[in-house]
Amino acid sequence: MLNQICGLLDWEFEAKMNWYLKVWKGFANFDGRSRRKEFWIFSLVNVLIFLLSIAFALLLILSGIDSTSSIRIAFGIFTIYLAFSLIPCLAVCVRRYHDLGKSGLWLLIWLFPVIGGPLLLIDMAKDGEPGTNQYGPNPKLPVNSPSIG
Questions:
Q1: Is 5 left (phi over 0), alpha (psi -120 to 50) or beta?
Q2: What is the mean pLDDT of the chain?
Q3: DSSP tag of 84
Q4: H/E segment holding residue 116
Q5: Residue 36 CB: number of other CB atoms within 10 A?
Q6: Is 138 left (phi over 0), alpha (psi -120 to 50) or beta?
Q7: Is residue 2 very low, low, confident or very high in pLDDT (cuts 50, 70, 90)?
Q8: Residue ranges per domain, the chain?
Q9: What does the buried/exposed string (b/e) look like for 41-51 if buried means 16 or more CB atoms within 10 Å of the residue's CB?
């Protein structure tokens, strides 16, 4: 029974990581469409990496290293990760807007203080257009499946 549960959890973890890695494989691909799952798994892993950097900083502090140095080291590492993940993050956001049938320029909405971030999150949570749109086929459909509409 325990083996079955561990096997299921292992499969789910592997499936989730495949969505995360899919974003990295399409590193600078701003064409086409992305599913919500692809965006949200990528975002979740980024949040987890941020939380791990905080835990790493706390671990360094508890080990006796100066707290200022510990925080600089941990957040320096996280900043390097952010720099590398910026382009894939922008690409998956643009592809999400394409899935909604909108131009990737809608991503600039986050530049508006107070309302930009929530509007971006609302858009990222919306379901994409069914069938093929001007940006490509529905990513939810199998590759050889006929599109709806």
A1: alpha
A2: 84
A3: H
A4: helix 116-125
A5: 16
A6: beta
A7: very low
A8: 17-125
A9: bbbebbeeeee
What pLDDT, in 10s, does the model give residues 104-113? 999 999 898 8
Class of residue 37 by CB neighbours under 10 A (exposed 0-12, middle 13-18, buried 19+): middle
Look at phi and psi of residue 115 and say left if phi exceeds 0, alpha if psi is from -120 to 50, else beta: alpha
Measured CA distances, 12 to 16, 18, 67 (Å): 6, 10, 37
Q: Which helix (H) or strand (E) holds 74?
A: helix 67-99
3 state SS of 104: helix
> For every residue of 3-66, which 3-state class applies, written as one string?
HHHHHHHHHHHHHHHHHHHHHHHCCCCCCCCCCHHHHHHHHHHHHHHHHHHHHHHHHHHHCCCC
Rounded-to-integer distance, Cα 118 and Cα 113, Å: 10
Q: Collapsing DSSP states into helix, strand and coil, what is residue 124?
A: helix
Entry pTM? 0.79
As a whole number of angstroms, the distance between CA 139 and CA 71 comes to 41
pLDDT tens-digit map of 40-98? 999 999 999 888 888 888 888 888 877 788 788 888 888 898 899 999 999 999 999 99
